[in-house]
Amino acid sequence: MKALLMLGLILLSVTVQGKVFERCEFARALKRLGMDGYRGISLANWVCLAKWESDFNTRATNYNPGSKSTDYGIFQINSRYWCEDGRTPRSVNACHISCNALLQDDITEAVTCAKRVVRDPQGIRAWVAWRNRCQNKDVTQYIQGCGV
User: Fold this and answer.
1) Residues 6+ away with beta carbon under 8 Å from 144
2) Distance between CA 143 and CA 145 in Å, rounded?
3) Per residue in 55-76, pLDDT tens?
């Protein structure tokens, strides 16, 4: 009985964690989904952004008390502007999706929304982690050895 309980707890923690991509696995997925060069943004910049926003975790969430909004998923897309979570006041939902869609192991919808974000005038600068960790830096290391 004790072993069964432990197994259940282990499975629950895996379920809550979601998929955590390996760096090269993520780079290949982004390339397959058309992110390499999208709006002039290199694949290495996208990988760098996701590394510092979520550490490649599809289920990452971060609450922002000031705006009463939450950042969701591998790209940490914000509920104030881009998705609907039913809790954020005056949500714009510019991606026209539920924020839960950004937490899926299949990152297709997260990529589609990220593409929408960079079509705005701010572009990739909308992400603070990209500005602080990737902008004006040599980001080639993020795809090195990935064969992409």
Assistant:
1) none
2) 6
3) 999 999 999 999 999 999 999 9
pLDDT of residue 18: 84
Q: What is the DSSP string of the chain?
A: -HHHHHHHHHHHHHHHH--B--HHHHHHHHHHTT-TTGGG--HHHHHHHHHHHHTTBTT-EEEETTTTEEEETTTTEETTTT-B-SSSTT---TT-SBGGGGGSSSTHHHHHHHHHHHTSTTGGGG-HHHHHHTTTS--GGGTTTS--
Instruction: Tell me the pLDDT tens digit for each residue of 117-130.
Output: 999 999 999 999 99
Instruction: Measure the CA–CA gap between 83 and 94, rounded to whole angstroms.
Output: 7
Name which of 54, 16, 46, 52 is nearest 29 in CA terms: 46
Q: Which residues are catalytic?
A: 53, 71
Look up residue 74 and give its amino acid: I
Q: CB–CB of 113/82 below 8 Å?
A: yes
